[in-house]
Amino acid sequence: MTTTSYLHGYREEERERLHRQARFLEPMVHDRLPFRRRRRLLEVGSGVGAQTEILLRHFPEVHVTGVEINDDQLAEARRYLATVPWATGRYTLTKGDASRLELETESFDGAFLCWILEHVGSPSRVLSEVRRVLVPGAPVVCNEVLNATFFIDPYSPDTLRYWMAFNDHQLSLGGDPFVGAKLGNLLQSVGFRDVSTEVRAFHLDNRAPGERAEFLAYWSELLLSGAPALLAANKVSQEVVDGMTRELELVARDPNSVFFYAFIQARARAW
Questions:
Q1: Is residue 5 a part of any domain in this protein?
Q2: Rounded to an integer, what distance in angstroms lies between the CA atom of residue 269 and that of residue 247?
Q3: Domain for residue 239, yes or no?
Q4: Distance from C-alpha of 94 to C-alpha of 261, rounded to nearest angstrom
Q5: What is the pLDDT of residue 2?
Q6: What are the two backbone dihedrals, phi and then psi, of residue 263, each rounded to the nearest 5 degrees?
Q7: Any idea what the CATH number is for the domain that residue 183 is in?
Q8: Torsion-angle region of residue 153: left (phi > 0), alpha (psi -120 to 50) or beta?
Q9: Is residue 93 within 8 Å of residue 66, measured between CB atoms?
Q10: HSE on the CB side for 129, CA within 13 Å?
Q11: Quick check: helix, strand or coil at residue 256?
């Protein structure tokens, strides 16, 4: 999928993490999506099928076509969706490069992308292909990271060192950990119209201690999922990884800890 190396890797632990991540972020990612009465939905970067399941559950009239480049992810998606009763006969999974979709022009009436453009070499090329296969007026929804927004308190220097190395490594692989901020420009540049963007933020403190604890556990898992690749590339030392792990445990126990992170959801229509 014009993909860079996927920073998190394709281990079984990562596949399991992606399922947990999709469920955890479902309330924000899938809030009021514009896919009612749609019949043919394209999901680019369908991965392990975690987002596919949610789309099928929320929109019982839709058929989802998922495009994914990695064989292990496809195998897991097929295994998982075969266990979901409401998915039967309502999805197609195909291996493909999102920058050169082997799909007919104007063959879908909606498209969904989630955490994929950060990992591809040419987001504009992918979005151009998505626009090509959409019928006029069809909605597209893109959810993407904006890693510059990360804030944590108490101050955690090893965590911040690790986070900078995490982002630098993704950039060196050809990805873009800041692509969320660019979605408006990208969608407009390839011919989408009615482009809108919304900042969706997690700002967790003493007002929501339970949610804060849950999110810190999720975020710790996300960060550590990149550790094998960062260590192998000599981007961080084991001491930094161990220091970050200790810091995150301290933050999780601190009664006054604060966490902030924002991602961007963009919506547009094909013309």
A1: no
A2: 44
A3: yes
A4: 33
A5: 46
A6: -120, 170
A7: 3.40.50.150
A8: beta
A9: yes
A10: 21
A11: coil
Q: What tokens appear for 80 in the block? A: 């998982």
* pLDDT at 6 exceeding the cut of 70: no
Go through 115-152 and write b for each residue having 16 or more CB atoms within 10 A of its CB, e for each that does not: bbbbbbeebbbbbbbbbbbbeeebbbbbbbbbbebbeb
Pure H helices in the chain: 12-29, 50-58, 71-81, 123-133, 157-172, 183-189, 209-225, 227-232, 238-253
**What is each CA distance from 19 to 12, 25, 40, 74, 113, in whole angstroms?**
11, 10, 23, 13, 16
* Average pLDDT value for residue range 234-254: 97
Q: Cβ neighbours of residue 170 under 8 Å, at least 6 residues apart?
A: 4, 7, 118, 119, 176, 177
First-to-last alpha carbon distance for the chain, in angstroms, is: 24
- CA pair distance 219, 139, nearest whole angstrom: 30
Nearest to 70 by CA among 15, 33, 26, 24: 15
3-state secondary structure (DSSP) of residue 233: coil
Q: Average pLDDT of 145-159?
A: 98
Residue 156's domain comprises: 12-269
Tens of pLDDT along 59-115? 999 999 999 999 999 999 999 999 999 999 999 999 999 999 999 999 999 999 999
CA distance 93 to 169: 30
Gap between the Cα atoms of 8 and 25, Å rounded: 18
Number of domains in the chain: 1
Q: What pLDDT shows up at residue 13?
A: 74
